[in-house]
Amino acid sequence: MILRTVYLLMAGFLVVFCSCTTEHSKIVLAEFGDYKITMSEFENAYAKNAGGYENAKDDSLSKLKNFLDLYLNFKMKLRDAQVRKYDENPALLAELNDYKEKVGVTYLLEKKLVEPALQDLYERRKWEYRASHIMFRIGPGHDEAEAEKKAHAVMDSIKAGADFEEMAKRHSQDQFSAQFGGDLFYITAGLLPVEFEDAVYKTETGQIYPEVVRTNFGYHIIKVTDKRERIPAIHASHILIDYRNENNEIDTAAARAKIDSVLNLIRNGEDFVQLASEVSEDPGTKDRGGDLGFFERRQMVKEFDEAAFNLDVNEISDVVQTNFGFHIIKLLEKKPYPTFEEEKANLKKLFERQNYAARKDEFISDLRTKYNYAVNEETLDFILSKSDSVMLDDNHPSLPEFKDKVLFTFAGNSVTVGEFFEKLPEKKDYHKKIITEELLNNAVNAVSEDYVLREEAFNLEKTDSVFADLMDDYRNGIYIFKLQEDEVWNKIEIDSVKLYEYYQVNKENFRYPDRVSFAEIFSVKDSVINHYYELLKAGADFDSLASLTERAAMKDKGGIYSLNDVKTSVLYEEANKLEKPGDFSEPIKVSGGYSIVKLIEKDPARVKTFEEARAEVAGAFQESESKRLENEYLERLKKRYEPSVYYSELEKAFVEEK
What we know:
Structural class: alpha+beta
Helix content: 40-55%
Strand order of the largest sheet: 4-3-6-5
């Protein structure tokens, strides 16, 4: 009975103990006023500063302590900014909104448009499709309406049972692929117009995309004939036997017989590399044992490409015939599909070149719908009625008549014609061009795009935690800057009296080292410099010879080097070895040639005069005053908030919970 009671008491104690143990993230490291700094907040801030959690967890306790002190000061300053109502300060709000607009739009396009598109492109490029098409051209010399009509007529015929390949040969205006029944061979994402690519990637093998697709090239009927995992590149070797014999005559039969005999030797164990070196008639690879290096799809002729990419590693092909002759191919390696980070730069290039404009148009269109964007057609018509042979700029003669009219609306906001004209100089494609209906519509689209992007950027904080953190960091930064301005920088008073007093107390901090000035005669040839030296010994004027120096940058200065630290260079060190002004050295071997130096002045190490040190004194005084005022400000904050810091809890920082 007693033992049972003891167990029950122990169990009760453990329950109480466990329930009283503070969750790691909620451990309080410091508090000031009504505010607390918890472990999770501290760890997040420290890890961000240290370059990540893994770096942070290896840091010493002293580093953590120093950071906690700094972070506490930072948090007290932010509380002070709140008390001062900086969040209502018009100048700070304007700066914050300007940053939010500029950075927000860039962030928006990168995170919501580019990065998802790159990830999608990366996933798509894991696959390759063999596609065929029937194309009806548009553009100069081709009537678009007629092209569209023909495309739909042929599509109807195919749906009614006509053979795709036969229809491609008869009707396709892509002359290259038409002869092969429309076959485009293997393609992958990022290489074709986005409309064509989207259709291909939505179609199953053996199927025809159910709609006619329009691209900038024309109207297309698309069929997918194969789909396979993409191999980015392969490494192969080959042996080539040319159709031409030693007399430069085409002899296909002899070439075939020769390649068959070579293949038979390989099948019986002969070394591929050795045979390639001996019999291959490809001069570019023969000396390398037939090695072609790595190549991607479509870099080789179609027949070679298809055979090579169908091989397994170390497999040897049958005889492959191309326009160049007969080949035997050996596959050496397959390049693995790269990681997203490895491929990101290439993906970005492909996306920007092929799909960015189209994807951005879709993105903007979605934003217009989201924010109920609408153009005032009456206003547009009124502008056009007043714009016969008039340029689109703020010198429009009728601007006073319509500048206050609403041109478009979005998200409950109205933009007037006057505001539109103010934005026009940013749109070089339309500004100062003769107004047409098409130009005006395009200009309105270009300007309104900025407005809907900015609207979305202003709402990002509510939907994107990363951007919200970015804005918090910037907001805190401008608040801290304003506090420093108010409490430190604007309170520093500098005048000559204070600077001189500071100099008198700290003059030993402002010193010159041993210094020397000198003149130099330089030549790239030792014979020339030795000749000058003999002339000097005979009494020639040094300054006259110095004007002949071959050091271009010093010619106009007469070879004179100003007073400087004797450790500045070898020349300064050599000049310092001379005893009195006017003495000159023997020829010295220096970089690029030979020199003779003449001492002009020696200035031993000494304290600088006030005037000599004035700029340094001013800088040091400002730094000293900044530290004093900063410490005084922090002391006032500590007196106000009476912070408490629990350094012992830091031992638990970055320790994983078990």
